[in-house]
Amino acid sequence: MCLIVEVVTPLSELPLGRLVEQHDFELELEPSIPTSADTSPFIWVRGPDARTFGTAADSAPDIDSLRLVETVPDGALYSVEWNFDRNPVFASLAERPIVLLECLSATDSWWLRFRIPSHGMLTALRRDWTERGLETEVDRITPLAADEEPASDGLTSHQLEALLLALERGYFDEHRRTSLDELGDELDISRQAVAARLRRAYRTLAERIRNESSYDERIT
Prior knowledge:
DNA binding domain-containing protein, globular, four-stranded antiparallel sheet, alpha+beta, 8 helices
């Protein structure tokens, strides 16, 4: 059975994590479809210190090259090259037919979401992490079919669940009546995973509004 797995790991376990500890920005690997063998991954940088990322990352030992693609009002997009084999977490994923779907930083950790073919392979992966001494915590395991359950407005079922719970518990109130930690306790996931789901939900809804606005402008 194919599984969707969410993992939390300290910032120090992945490339550029030390920079997140030292600066006020968030990093997110952009999901993309490679069109050639030498396609480089892309990374979004967002936050107050996003404009300083290029300078800070120039001296990062785990980066081979970095190229600014575009700046946007709240951040920037970079093309980045690194050797996956030099990082134990990425290397353990690359050694198996695992598809990394999402990878983003929070204030104190990375949150990864990937697809893995079976429970047996996940067990072997976790054993591998333990033997390598990696501080990785599996936050949630979901069968692929359940993860693809229909939701509304383009949101996944998990995003919709987190969004509605946050609304119900007063997370969006001017004086918040709950926290990410409390929401995470109810959903049985970490606060980082809650934050990631809410952010994905915001983006999906904002993109839908933008697309609908563009459509309205085209037909008027």
